[in-house]
C-alpha cells in the first residue's frame, strides 16, 4: 500500500493536464457534431484525472479530452485506467482511427492493466481527443485518463508490470505449494485453499487484462466477462469450503457450518445457470450472483469471527487475510457507483492484498499442519507409552526393538536382551493393595530408566515384567549392567510384607546370535529369567545355548548382587 501511494505521487507530476466532457451517444451522432458541441460547452464536464463512470447500456458514450499544448514534439500516449471491460474507439480527423479492448492482440502498443493509445506528434495547437465507449453487456466501471510522454508511460508501465507479476507469482506459488501438501497429506483443506487462490488470480487477471497482456491467453478473447464472473463465484465457493475445514467449524461454530457449506454448493450452481445459454436461467443467475456474493462475504466474515472468539486459532489467520481484501472489495464496489473517485489505486491494492492474503493464509495452513503434527505426536506418545510407568508399552517396544535389530545387521555388533520380573509382586499387591503395587512399579521404572543409557531400549512388557535391549555391549558388560539393576531395585527397600521381605527383581540375559529374531531372543531371555526364579531370585542368569541343546538348561554364570 505504501509503494502504491508513493508510486501515484511520483508519477502524478508526469501527467499532462487534461480537461474533459462527455455525453451519451444518440442515434445519428457524428464526430463533427460531438466536437462542435464540445466547443460550444454543451457537453457534461468532468475531471479526467479522477475516476468517472460512463454508461454503456444503450449506444455507449462520447468522451472528448482537451490536452494542453505541447511544444516538445514528444510522442505522447493516452492511457485509460483501469482497463475497461469492453472496447473503446479513438477518432481521428477522417473517422475511427483505432479500436482497442482488453482482448485485442493486434494493437501496436499494449497497456498492462490499462488501454493505451499512441497519439500523433502535435507541435502546435493541441486538438481535442475524441473517444467513444462502445456499448456492451458488461457493467461499466469508472475510469480515469492520463496523457504522458512515451518514455514516462513506458517506465510506469514497466513498474506496474513488475508489481503485478510479483503479486500474481506469490499467489500462484502459494497455491501450488498448498496443492503439493494436499496431495502429500491428503487433506482437502489445502485443496480448497488452492482452488480459492487460483480463482482469485483468474478474477484479477481478467479485470486487469493480465491474462491477455502479457500472458497472451488469446483463447479467452470474447469470454472474459463470463470467465471473470464464474471465477468470482467459484472463489467464494472454495472460500466457504476452505473456512469450514480450516477454522474447524464442526467444533467451534457448528450452527454456522450448514449455511457456509450451502454457500459453497450454491455458487457453482449459479455459475452453471449462467453458462446454460437458457435466457431465463441466465437472467436468474445474473440476478442472484451479486446478492449471494455480498451475503456470502458477510457470512464468511461473521463465521470466522465467531469461530475465532470460541477458540479457533486458524480463524484469526483467516480474518487477518480476508478482512482487508473484503474491505477493498467493498470500496471498489462503492467506487463503481460513483463514490471514492480519487482513490484510483484500489484496483492495484486488490492485487497486492491478494498476495498478502495468500501469504497470511499459507502461514495459517502451516500453523494448522504443525498443530495437527503436534496433536498426532501427542496421540502417538499416549499410544506408545505405558500410562503408569511412562515406559514404552509392549507394542511400541516391540516395534522399536525390531528396528534396532534391523539396523544392527552385522552379527558382530553385540546386542543384549534383559528380561526382568519383580519378585514377590503378587504378594505385595495382596498384602498392601494395588495402590502400593502401582507405587512400586513407578519407583522401579524410574530406577531402571536412570540406570540405563538413553540409547538402551526399555519397556514394560506386561504386569510386573520389564524388558530392555542393550546395543553395543558384550556379555560381560551386559552382566555388569543387569547386576547393577538388581542392586538398585533391592536398595529401594520396598517392603512386601511384615516379615522384612523386600521387593527385588530377577533378570534373564540373552545375547543376540546369528539367525536370531526378536521372538527367539526374548524367548531365551525369558527362559533365563525363569531359571533365576527357580534358583533363589534377586540375581542375573545368562542363557546358555549349549545347555538348551542338551535338553537340561544350566547356568553358564550365576551372579548374586551385593547385600
UniProtKB/TrEMBL annotation:
<protein>
    <recommendedName>
        <fullName>diguanylate cyclase</fullName>
        <ecNumber>2.7.7.65</ecNumber>
    </recommendedName>
</protein>
<feature type="transmembrane region" description="Helical">
    <location>
        <begin position="288"/>
        <end position="309"/>
    </location>
</feature>
<keyword id="KW-0812">Transmembrane</keyword>
<dbReference type="InterPro" id="IPR011623">
    <property type="entry name" value="7TMR_DISM_rcpt_extracell_dom1"/>
</dbReference>
<dbReference type="InterPro" id="IPR043128">
    <property type="entry name" value="Rev_trsase/Diguanyl_cyclase"/>
</dbReference>
<feature type="transmembrane region" description="Helical">
    <location>
        <begin position="226"/>
        <end position="246"/>
    </location>
</feature>
<feature type="transmembrane region" description="Helical">
    <location>
        <begin position="258"/>
        <end position="282"/>
    </location>
</feature>
<feature type="transmembrane region" description="Helical">
    <location>
        <begin position="316"/>
        <end position="337"/>
    </location>
</feature>
<feature type="domain" description="GGDEF">
    <location>
        <begin position="413"/>
        <end position="545"/>
    </location>
</feature>
<feature type="transmembrane region" description="Helical">
    <location>
        <begin position="197"/>
        <end position="220"/>
    </location>
</feature>
<feature type="transmembrane region" description="Helical">
    <location>
        <begin position="160"/>
        <end position="185"/>
    </location>
</feature>
<dbReference type="InterPro" id="IPR000160">
    <property type="entry name" value="GGDEF_dom"/>
</dbReference>
<dbReference type="InterPro" id="IPR050469">
    <property type="entry name" value="Diguanylate_Cyclase"/>
</dbReference>
<dbReference type="InterPro" id="IPR029787">
    <property type="entry name" value="Nucleotide_cyclase"/>
</dbReference>
<feature type="transmembrane region" description="Helical">
    <location>
        <begin position="349"/>
        <end position="366"/>
    </location>
</feature>
<keyword id="KW-1133">Transmembrane helix</keyword>
<dbReference type="Pfam" id="PF00990">
    <property type="entry name" value="GGDEF"/>
</dbReference>
<dbReference type="Pfam" id="PF07695">
    <property type="entry name" value="7TMR-DISM_7TM"/>
</dbReference>
<keyword id="KW-0472">Membrane</keyword>
Amino acid at each position: 500500500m505504501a509503494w502504491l501511494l508513493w508510486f501515484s505521487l511520483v508519477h502524478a507530476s508526469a501527467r499532462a493536464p487534461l480537461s474533459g466532457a462527455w455525453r451519451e451517444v444518440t442515434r445519428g451522432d457524428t464526430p463533427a457534431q460531438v466536437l462542435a458541441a464540445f466547443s460550444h460547452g454543451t457537453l457534461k464536464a468532468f475531471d479526467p484525472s479522477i475516476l468517472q463512470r460512463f454508461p454503456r447500456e444503450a449506444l455507449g458514450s462520447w468522451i472528448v479530452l482537451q490536452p494542453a499544448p505541447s511544444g516538445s514534439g514528444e510522442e505522447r500516449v493516452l492511457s485509460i485506467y483501469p482497463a475497461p471491460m469492453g472496447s473503446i474507439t479513438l477518432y481521428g480527423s477522417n473517422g475511427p482511427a483505432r479500436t482497442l479492448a482488453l482482448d485485442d492482440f493486434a494493437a501496436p502498443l499494449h497497456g498492462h492493466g490499462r488501454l493505451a493509445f499512441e497519439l500523433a506528434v502535435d507541435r502546435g495547437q493541441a486538438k481535442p481527443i475524441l473517444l467513444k465507449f462502445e456499448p456492451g453487456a458488461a457493467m461499466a466501471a469508472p475510469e480515469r485518463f492520463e496523457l504522458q510522454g512515451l518514455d514516462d508511460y513506458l517506465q510506469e508501465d514497466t513498474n506496474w508490470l513488475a508489481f503485478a507479476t510479483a503479486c500474481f507469482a506469490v499467489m500462484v506459488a502459494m497455491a501450488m505449494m498448498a496443492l503439493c501438501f494436499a496431495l502429500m497429506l491428503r487433506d482437502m483443506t489445502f485443496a480448497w485453499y488452492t482452488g480459492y487462490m487460483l480463482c482469485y488470480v483468474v478474477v484479477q487477471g481478467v479485470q486487469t487484462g493480465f491474462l491477455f497482456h502479457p500472458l497472451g491467453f488469446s483463447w479467452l478473447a470474447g469470454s472474459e466477462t463470463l470467465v471473470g464472473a464464474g471465477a468470482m463465484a467459484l472463489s467464494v465457493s472454495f472460500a466457504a469450503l476452505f473456512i469450514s475445514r480450516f477454522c474447524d467449524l464442526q467444533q467451534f461454530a457448528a450452527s454456522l457450518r450448514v449455511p457456509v457449506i450451502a454457500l459453497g454448493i450454491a455458487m457453482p450452481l449459479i455459475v452453471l445457470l449462467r453458462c446454460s445459454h437458457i435466457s431465463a436461467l441466465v437472467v436468474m443467475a445474473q440476478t442472484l450472483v451479486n446478492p449471494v456474493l455480498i451475503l456470502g462475504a458477510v457470512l464468511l466474515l461473521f463465521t470466522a469471527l465467531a469461530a475465532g472468539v470460541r477458540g479457533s486459532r486458524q480463524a484469526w489467520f483467516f480474518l487477518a487475510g480476508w478482512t482487508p481484501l473484503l474491505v477493498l472489495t467493498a470500496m471498489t464496489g462503492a467506487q463503481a457507483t460513483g463514490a471514492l473517485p480519487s482513490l484510483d489505486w484500489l484496483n492495484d491494492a486488490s492485487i497486492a492484498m491478494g498476495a498478502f492474503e495468500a501469504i497470511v493464509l499459507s502461514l495459517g495452513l502451516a500453523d494448522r499442519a504443525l498443530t495437527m503434527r503436534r496433536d498426532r505426536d501427542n496421540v502417538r506418545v499416549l499410544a506408545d507409552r505405558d500410562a503408569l510407568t511412562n515406559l514404552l508399552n509392549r507394542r511400541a517396544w516391540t516395534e522399536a526393538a525390531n528396528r534396532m535389530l534391523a539396523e544392527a545387521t552385522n552379527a558382530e555388533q553385540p546386542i543384549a536382551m534383559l528380561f526382568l520380573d519383580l519378585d514377590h509382586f503378587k504378594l505385595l499387591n495382596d498384602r498392601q493393595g494395588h495402590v502400593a503395587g502401582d507405587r512400586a512399579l513407578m519407583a522401579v521404572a524410574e530406577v531402571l530408566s536412570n540406570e540405563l543409557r538413553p540409547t538402551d531400549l526399555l519397556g514394560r512388557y506386561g504386569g510386573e515384567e520389564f524388558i530392555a535391549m542393550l546395543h553395543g555391549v558384550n556379555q560381560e558388560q551386559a552382566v555388569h549392567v543387569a547386576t547393577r539393576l538388581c542392586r538398585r531395585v533391592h536398595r529401594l527397600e520396598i517392603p512386601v510384607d511384615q516379615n522384612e521381605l523386600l521387593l527385588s527383581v530377577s533378570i534373564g540375559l540373552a545375547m543376540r546370535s546369528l539367525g536370531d529374531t526378536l521372538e527367539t531372543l526374548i524367548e531365551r531371555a525369558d527362559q533365563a529369567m525363569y531359571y533365576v526364579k527357580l534358583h533363589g531370585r534377586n540375581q542375573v542368569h545368562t542363557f546358555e545355548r549349549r545347555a538348551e541343546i542338551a535338553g537340561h538348561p544350566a547356568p553358564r554364570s550365576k551372579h548374586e548382587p551385593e547385600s
